[in-house]
Amino acid sequence: MCGVAGLWLAGAAAPDAAKATLQSMADAVAHRGPDSSGVWFDPESGVGLAHRRLAILDLSEAGHQPMHSESGRYVLSFNGEIYNYRALRRDLEATRPVAWRGTTDSEVLLEGIEQWGLVPTLQRCLGMFAFALWDRRERTLQLVRDRLGVKPLSLAFTPSGACFGSELKSLTHFPGFAKDIDPAALSAYVERSCIPAPLAIYRGSRKVAPGTFLTLRGPTSSEVKETRWWSASDEIEQAKANPFKGSLEDAAEALDRLLRDSIRLRMVADVPLGAFLSGGIDSSTVVGLMQALSAQPVHTFSIGSPAKQYDESVSAAQVASHLGTHHTSLIVTPQMALEAVPLVTQIYDEPFADSSQIPTYLVSKLARESVTVALSGDGGDELFGGYNRHVWTPRIWSAVRRVPRALKGRIAAGIQGVSPTRWDELFARAGRLSPSRQPGLHLHKVASILSADGLDAMHGTLIRQWPAAELLHRPTRWGTEERAAQVGGPTEAMMYRDLMGYLPDDILAKVDRASMAVSLEAREPLLDHRLIAFSWSLPTRYKVSGGQGKIVLRKVLDRYVPKALIDRPKMGFGIPLAGWLRNELKDWAWSLLRPEALDREGLFRPEVVRAYWNEHQRGKRNWEHRLWTVLMFQAWRGSSGDLG
Fold first, then answer.
1. Same domain flag for 221 and 245
2. Same domain, 225 and 237
3. What is the pTM (predicted TM-score) of this model?
4. What is the pLDDT at residue 35?
5. How confident is the model at residue 11, as a pLDDT?
6. Is the same domain home to 539 and 584?
7. How many Cβ atoms sit within 10 Å of the Cβ of residue 434?
8. Where does a domain end: 230, 258, 288?
9. What is the pLDDT of residue 130?
10. Is there a smaller number of Cβ atoms within 10 Å at the N or the C end of the chain?
11. For residue 27, what are the contacts with CB-CB under 8 A and spacing of at least 6?
């Protein structure tokens, strides 16, 4: 895994000055590639590429970048892994002799583009990647991102020219880059706790969208063309046109085979490798198959919490013991979280408020002490119906769709009139089993969607953190309400939205920044695009049925881990943030939320934030996520030097 950066100057520049800028841009993401760095600049065109390398395959100098193709036509700065590069290499050799300099996937990519062209090569690749490719013959610069956006890539235009990189940190080192807040990006952030592609927090910047590449024919914004080289909608449509016809047991067998191949490919590395293990279905499946494919105990890593309702460390340890992995665990304390907060605001380099960013960073840091590559279970919820909203929202809508709006409002008010903590106590006292370990919080979520006009609106409410019009002085329309493609029923419509939005913009961004901050490569075997196609070929009942999600994935896991170690309420990768904001993190939080500071900056409505803060402190409502959204923006703005 690596860091990419580069530029296309609008005017003449001394090569030494251009190379110095490139080096600064590369050094800004040194954490993504601590093993070596390189810069390349072409004075004639004004194009330059920079690279920071985390050596995973072929640790020799043969993997140094920026890398030139054998003919010299192409220059590449590459971030990612192409897992089937050995098969592609054999295909290339079967066509013509290649004078290979090493055994890296980057070199295979270059020679593939030389022989097959960019799009045909991308369509052959199994992997995660983002790269910059300069074509010296056609004088075009192409910025490419993988199918689902596992790896990041951003672009900006300034009076000095174009600049791009894996992270916005690099772009801020380009001459003339302005750190002006984009109001549309801010509004999107308030509603989603992250900034969805193609938006970026700085005006004039953009993210390359997943499954696309940008072609630049010059250093100005008017010379850019976007091309979609992979479409989830097309993939899903094709899968639905060729549905899986076997039984559930047949589907589990086919899924097992696909998972084995995906995981086997992602276990190829010339450095130590392990896996994150939460004890949940997704990570346990990945680790179970890893261990089945490995002759040695797999290194696994988990973290836990002193708060019982958030602690999965015991479950993870039980799964690890059953599978025989070499397991390491860490309990996250409030002090660890407080120490991590200044780091995460810099790690994410634009506002990001998924509070699981803290445990994700800490487990990555823990893993990096032993390994350089870690496999994760990300993607299982989106592909196999794993979120509570996939299971329960259609049922709720079916039950309340004909209930008068006024009555639904009274029911919601009654639920919300009891605090989440009190609901938790009532469930515990009654000895009732809840589908969540935080029943009060989820009852309040149910109340929030009762008055929605339909399933689309319910899903939008569930993933919205804060209405921008309520919090911001100047809310800005940032996009239309998402509508799912015609992918099936209501459950699959929600899964599609999560696959296209929540997954790349939140989950994958979170894991990439947290892992790369400690120079750890995270790999997501459940997001192999062949698995995406397979999951969408299955009938919905093989994914969600009888109040339970991930039906077929559970069938596979049953082959490796006893049900007794897995069957428990779903738990997110969270922290006891609500309590911390009332206690250990209270002083820090209030220092950022003081009305006089918010009023001076002129973005958020101080009276609104104060009202939510007071309700949260009294325990009347749990506003941890809304408050965290403001806190992470304020902390980010201060760490980036933009806080007045």
1. no
2. no
3. 0.92
4. 94
5. 85
6. no
7. 15
8. 230
9. 98
10. C
11. 37, 52
| CA-closest candidate to residue 117, choices 4, 233, 265, 229 | 229
Amino acid at 315: S
* Domain end among 516, 539, 565: 565
The stretches of 334-480 forming alpha helices (DSSP H) are: 334-347, 357-368, 380-384, 388-400, 405-416, 420-430, 439-449, 455-463, 468-471
Question: What pairs with residue 521 in β-bridges?
Answer: 373
129 DSSP β-pair partners? 80
Between CA 301 and CA 374 the distance in angstroms is: 9
Inside any domain, residue 421:
no
* Residue 167 and residue 243 share a domain: no
Provide the pLDDT confidence category of residue 479 given band limits of 50, 70 and 90.
confident
Structure tokens at 166: 């894996």
- Give residue 126's pLDDT: 97
Could you give the CA distance from residue 82 to residue 113 in angstroms, rounded to a whole number?
A: 13
Helix (H, G, I), strand (E, B) or coil at 577: helix
CA 174 from chain centre, in angstroms, equals 26
Query: What is the pLDDT averaged over residues 119-127?
Result: 97
Give exposure, 50-61, as e/b (b: 16+ Cβ within 10 Å). bbbbbbbbbeee
b/e map of 441-477 (b: 16 or more CB within 10 Å)? bbbbbbbbbbbbeebbebbbbbbebbebeebbeebee
| Nearest by Cα to 186 from 343, 342, 346, 353 | 353
Share of the chain above pLDDT 70, in %: 94
Task: For residue 66, say if its preceding peptide bond is cis, omega within 30 degrees of 0.
Answer: yes
In a domain, 13, yes or no: yes
Residues 6 or more apart in contact with residue 446 via CB below 8 angstroms: 392, 396, 415
522 & 580 share domain: no
What are 558's two structure tokens?
A: 């049953």
**Which CATH number is 301's domain given?**
3.40.50.620
List of long-range contacts for 339-343, beta carbons under 8 Å, 24+ apart: 341/585, 341/588, 341/635, 342/635, 342/639, 343/517
Tokens 């660890």 correspond to: 336
Of the candidates 500, 543, 537, which has an alpha carbon nearest to the alpha carbon of residue 239?
Answer: 537
Give CA–CA dist 63/74, Å, rounded: 16
- Exposed e or buried b for every residue in 150-178, given b needs 16+ CB within 10 A? bbbbbbbbbebbbbbbbbbbbbbbbeebe
- The CATH number covering residue 166 comes to 3.60.20.10
Cα(429)–Cα(78) distance, rounded to whole angstroms? 56
Encoded tokens for 248: 């559930």
262 within a domain of the structure (yes/no)? yes
Residues 260 and 317 grouped into a single domain: yes
Residue 281: partners with Cβ closer than 8 Å, 6 or more residues away: 377, 380, 386, 550, 553, 554, 557, 566
Q: Shortest CA distance to 176 belongs to which of 10, 346, 3?
A: 10
Q: Are residues 316 and 340 in the same domain?
A: yes
Within a domain: 108? yes
Tally the domains of the chain: 3
Q: Which amino acid makes up residue 255?
A: L
Q: Which of 4-18, 129-143, 480-494, 525-539 has the lowest mean pLDDT?
A: 480-494
> Do residues 200 and 240 both lie within one domain?
no
Sign of CA dihedral 222, 227, 233, 237: positive
Q: Which two tokens stand for residue 99?
A: 């004078």
Residue 267 structural domain: 233-382+500-565
Calculate the CA 371 to chain-centre distance.
Answer: 21
Secondary structure letter of residue 640 according to DSSP: T
